Amino acid sequence: MSWLIIKKFNKNFLHNTETIARKHRIDFGETVVIENFSTRFADDKCLYFDDRYAVIVDGVILNKSELLAESGAASLRDWIKREIGKSKPICSYLRGPFTGCVIDKRDGHLYAFGNQTGDAAVFYYADADCFAVSSDFNMVCDWCRANDRRLSFNTIAAKQMMTLGWLVDGMTFVAEIKRTFPGNYVNVSGNGNIAEASYHRFDNHTVLNISMDEAVELLDTGFRRSVARCFDKDIEYGYSHHLVDMSGGLDSRMVSVVARDMGYDGITNMHYSKKDSTEEKCAYAMACALKNEFIGKPLDDLTFFYDVDEIISKNFGLAFYSGITGGNRLLSSINFDKFGLEHTGQLGDVVVGTYNKQAKHSPPDPLIISSSDVFDPCFHVPVWIDNHEMLALYYRGFQGILTTHFIRRNYTEVVSPFIDVDFLTLCLSLPLEFRHNHMLYWKWIDTKYPIAASIPSTTKRPCENEKITIRKILIRLIGKRKREVAAILNKLGLYGLVSDKNSMNPIDYWFSTNIELRKFVREYFQSHIDSINDYSEIKQMLETLFNSERANDKFLAITVLGAYDKYFNLEQR
After folding, report:
1. Which residues span the domain enclosing 128?
2. I want to staple 95 with a disulfide (CB 3.0 to 4.6 A). Which of 10, 63, 85, 208 is the partner?
């Protein structure tokens, strides 16, 4: 599921691509195109050439049938032939997890693009001799190593991982290789000038003046269209079974509920969490209510915590390795001859809802989106992001949470109807006071899909016009005292013993009660920390972070060390 394009600026530069896995290699002028497409969803991929243009498109185009119907084109290739060279870049028309590149053979100009939400991105390297771009970060690294390109450890990326828990600002752990920002393309002129430009930005400033009931109708119509785009893609390729994530919350259940209501059957729900947790019970009950098949993986064996190197290789070190928990192991056990896409509910709570804690917009706050408070966040906020909802959507949602899609894509393409560009745009135009505190979300469910509300959920209903009683005041005081006690135990390294062991992923509880896991994490850190001796500031920060009371801080630290080992400790590897 990948491609690589090399453009030479220096005609005397000889480069080697023999170490790069490929199905096809095409040379023209000073440019080399290497294609290594997956056979899955083959008609959504295209390698197009004519006298002037070379175009590569990979991934899944969820609105392909709409584009073909509107244009009268017979195939994606035919549509590209009709649209290429017009004023708008072709990526602006596409929906779904896609990447691609357009090359003008006449003047050598090219632009390479990922999708609007960043879960499909391109990675690029440039120096005086050449420009390399790919949908696969590891492929760019391998090409650079094979051609003796200098690569250096990105200390800013290390600091971002230790604070945010993922990488933003186009950072990767290799300083010379950048990731495109969501909705951007990287533009390379014929004479070698390189710059990113935007072809799509989400915005929450234009708000519709409508009632709650009208918002529900717009929301429902838009979501059903998004679900149809996703599930029809399975049917287009002959998959009669749909693999759909199911958690204990609202997001993934709404994908299954709405799909069922629209007449899609053959749904198999996939779930992973702590055994007998509230999360598991809610997910299983919902699947049973819908009469769906159910695949469940208990996480209590904690095996996913040991997959540091595998996960870093699959997510390119873009996010802390333990974020997907048991997802990778469960996906690796599934026979995808039966299933098409993996359907998730990713970002539903903050698309139909909001990242905002209040029903009004506030300035961007980097501290709120951080995974650790040991150090201050280290990233740049663009001037066009002027409120916290958009900061969190781009920097936590797109570049953080959605990085699990890079892992999932090792097995099949992954989609979420909530991040459909048109649906997400609609939701951002709905009044914030409706979306806040899941008010619109629950109104939508109660009005249109009461079966989703009939099964307990881990997402709580909003408390409208809540009356303050003595009993509620006492409950809150007791809760406050419990948190104070927990904070003291946390400093003693005992927080896991009193943490909520009934949640989906009780990481502190597992870490505090499992000797073997603590031993593995400690030994991994100790065996890798000296490899980073050349970066004394980073080493000191890692030691401070690892000595934090929180288990997740330790996982952030060993993610940095694992990424350094993967991409720079080559002799040892």
Report:
1. 2-198
2. 63
